[in-house]
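Re: the request from the purification team.
They wanted to know what the chain is likely to look like in 3D before they choose a buffer screen. I agreed to run a prediction and write the result into the notebook, where they can find it.
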Amino acid sequence: MRGATTISVELCFKYAWGIHMKKFGRIVIAAAAGLLISVSGAEAACKKAFYTGSDRDPIWWEGRDNSRANWSDKVAGHIGKKWSKWSKARDANDTCTWLPTQGVNWCVARARPCK
């Protein structure tokens, strides 16, 4: 008789574990779907077009910062201030090139604006 009790307890545990794992799987799928929706929602708040800003400065980090500020000004002028934060931009890239004949860095900031 003791053996039958052990088997029925094992079967109950396996059945309960199976139901638990099915629910867990559904939770994981639902969470993944929510994540995909939130990522695509964040992507939808970005423009497809790239904007650029540029500046020349003997000190490269000032040129970089000024090119980003010029990028923000250009974006604000074209599509509005709420889109003009460099920190929220996607695919952001800025480069500075030293121009020895002119003694300055030519810096260009390029990014897609986001809200």
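For the purification team: DSSP finds two helices and three strands in the chain.
Please add any questions underneath this entry.
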